[in-house]
Amino acid sequence: MIKSLYIRVIGTFLVVIMISLLSSFYIGRSLFKKEISRIGQNDMIAVGEEIIAQYEQTKPDDRDEFIQRMVKVSAHPIHLYKNSDEVKFYNLKNTTKIKISNESIINRLMLLVLLVGIVIGCVCIVVAARYLVKPLQILTQATKRLAKGDFDVEIKTKSTDEIGVLTQGFNEMASELKQLEKMRQDFVTNVSHEIQTPLTSISGFAMALKNRQLVAEANRNHYLDIIIAESSRLSRLSDNLLELASLDSEQHPFEPAKYNLSEQIRGIVVTCEPQWSAKEQKIDLHIDNSVTILADQDQLNQVWMNLLGNSIKFTPPNGHIEISLTQSGNEIIIAITDSGIGIAPEQIDFVFDRFYKTDPSRNRNISGNGLGLAIVKKIITLHQGIIEIKSQTD
User: Fold this and answer.
1) pLDDT per residue over 260-281, tens digit each?
2) Least confident range of 132-136, 223-227, 265-269, 281-285
3) Domains in the chain and their CATH numbers?
4) pLDDT of residue 61
5) How confident is residue 1, by pLDDT bands cut at 50, 70 and 90?
6) What DSSP character marks residue 290?
7) What is the DSSP letter of 15?
8) Which of 229, 179, 232, 223 has its CA nearest to residue 205?
9) Alpha-carbon span 300 to 265, nearest angstrom
10) Residue 2 has pLDDT above 50, yes or no
11) pTM for the complete prediction?
């Protein structure tokens, strides 16, 4: 089995050329055979008429000698019929050889033309095949590099044919794979960091508690609270990662139902009351009580919890939070405004990225894993909605 495309292309072209040339040769012979025979017959008739004319003019005494002389001149054998039963044959000894020689020369000439055509065709095919196969060979080498994890691959091409389109598609695929690889590396780095930090705290305080000489009895409960808090942080990280994986797989349960969105927002505010009350924050609601929506109630409940939780978290004590809900036709608009520390303009485009956190120097006392808003964006997108952030720093 021939595996090389280059050899297969050349072999195919050679077979095609040979079949086409041989076919054209035999087809041409069959098509012009009658015409060639007719021309030969006309030539012999003309020679015969000329011999008769010469014979009538000269009236030779020796007919046999005259006819033998005509055979030499015309290079054709002559059959002289006296009656149906008596035929005399006049033949030049070399006539058959001459005719055979002429036919042989013609056949060799045609064969030479055929072979020259095949050789020239082969050379052209070899050059053309190499030109055609070379882009595929380059694609093959680039694919091998891609398979080994080298995503920094780009094939330059100016072609606009099918191979050019294939090359352009390959470049786009390599670029997307390179971006995905970077995202994967960043994801692994961020997950490792988010897991390592609480694990380090848990391990350190657990070892300290194990040694009674290092920890005073009065500090034991404080250390235990830290361990519990860090464990909860790991648990939230695990839950969020599983949630994102489920949403990304497009197999996450999606159960839309029609319900009152106004009541859901009020319920979220009541649920979060311990958090905003502890910081003595004020929440104002501007809600249209008649707003209903067809959506997955559990998923949107998580969205409002994350958004309101972020507002409470980043709004200082005695701050102000305002929630508005309006409906205009089929469009429902929910706005959450707070008097928090704000987000720098250059960071707004990244807040929905996974594990992205704003400047830690502005909120070093606030913990989080940077997955909450990524989950919010994913759920809103699944509901064919849009989420935007407008902010200014203090």
Assistant:
1) 998 988 888 888 888 888 888 8
2) 132-136
3) 5-147 (no CATH), 162-248 (1.10.287.130), 257-382 (3.30.565.10)
4) 79
5) very low
6) T
7) H
8) 223
9) 10
10) no
11) 0.50
Decide which of 104 and 364 is more confident.
104
Query: What length is written for the chain?
Result: 394
Amino acid letter, 67: I
Using CA atoms, how far residue 204 sits from 197, 209, 211, 218, 238, in Å, is 11, 9, 11, 18, 21
Q: What is the mean pLDDT of residues 48-67?
A: 79
Taking CA atoms, 74 is separated from 48, 50, 60, 92, 164, in Å, by 9, 10, 18, 10, 66
Q: Which helix (H) or strand (E) holds 326?
A: strand 320-328
What are the angstrom distances between the C-alpha of 385 and each of 115, 326, 380? Answer: 72, 15, 5
- The residue whose two tokens read 């969020």 is 240
Q: How are beta strands 320-328 and 282-287 bridged, if at all? A: parallel
* DSSP per-residue codes, 66-112: HHHHHHHHH---EEEESSSS-EEEE--TTHHHHHHHHHHHHHHHHHH
Q: Which two tokens stand for residue 248?
A: 């990304």
Residue with tokens 């649920």: 271
